[in-house]
Amino acid sequence: MLDWLASEFVANGRRLKGNAPANRDLEHLSQRRASKDGLALDAENRLLWGKSPVRLDAESLRDAVLAVSGKLNPKMGGPGFRDVSITPNKAPPTTADLSEGRRVQQAHGLPL
To answer: pLDDT, tens digit, for every residue of 39-86?
Structure first.
């Protein structure tokens, strides 16, 4: 689905307004209907087939991707870190430092 959306985005000159029909299709797909048999098996709506879609914030998504890839540093405490540092006319650092893979909650400037 994402590959198709990306190809449509490029085909429309990288404009979001041209993807309105695709966005409507995605809305329709996200409004799934549960069957009676499925509801009998999963009355609490906990299984993936019938689970209601939930928005995920960027920080949780980042931490989840790091956890699944095995790169999440579970260590708590220590100094905070900056995940992204933008300096004009300077290339981003390429060496990994000790803060790589730390949870977003340990970043500077974010409430715990």
So the answer is: 788 777 777 666 666 777 887 888 888 889 988 887 777 666 666 666
**Could you give the CA distance from residue 13 to residue 71 in angstroms, rounded to a whole number?**
36
**Which residues make beta-bridge pairs with 96?**
none
Asked if residues 112 and 86 have their Cβ atoms less than 8 Å apart, the reply is no
Selection from 40, 38, 60 nearest residue 49 by Cα: 38
**DSSP class of residue 97?**
-
The DSSP code for 111 is -
Establish if 67 belongs to a structural domain: no
Do the Cβ atoms of 72 and 63 come closer than 8 Å? yes
Residue 53 in tokens: 């879609």
Confirm whether 106 is domain-assigned: no
